[in-house]
Amino acid sequence: MLNSVHLQARQLIVPSFPGTIAWMPKWACDFLRDSFVNPASFDSKPTRRIYIKRNQSSSRRLINENEVIRFLSQFGFEAINLELLSVGQQANLLAQTAIVVAPHGSGLSNLVFCQSDMTVIELFSPFYVYPCYWLVANLVKLNYFYAVSYTHLRAH
């Protein structure tokens, strides 16, 4: 037997998708930035360097993520699990970040919160390269770079 749920609202707000899947207009980036970033986060030049971890994800994980983190830590990078932060905390973190390195994934949606001219390096598998975060980076005027990892494949 299924339980029925009845909901009634005085006002219902249903957002529309502002573009096509994974492609947003600039006004959407501006709206998100204005809604979530504390203006004080933009008072100083960003200095943080972060690596966005994907170890909690079920897909597109780096097999050698611990090695990547150790390598980047030599250059002052912090490894961050964005899933453990609120949206506001993520927004303010990215607004204070000078360089982001991350495997392709939803954490890069937070690029909308970055200050212009910061740098992002997106890591791709050779089997899945999708340019949606390149577009976001261009909309908010970031320096965008990417790397595609290749592994030696052997036939069995």
Mind explaining what this structure looks like?
- There is one protein chain.
- With 156 residues, the protein is of the alpha/beta class.
- The chain is 24% helix and 18% strand.
- It is built from 4 helices and 5 strands.
- It has helices spanning 26-36, 65-73, 87-95, 132-139, and strands at residues 48-52, 77-80, 97-103, 119-124, 143-148.
- Strands 2-1-3-4-5 form a 5-stranded parallel β-sheet.
- Strand 4 (119-124), helix 4 and strand 5 (143-148) form a beta-alpha-beta unit.
- The termini are far apart.
- Mean pLDDT is 87; it is low at 152-156.
List keywords for this structure.
single chain, 156 residues, alpha/beta, 18% strand, globular, disordered C terminus
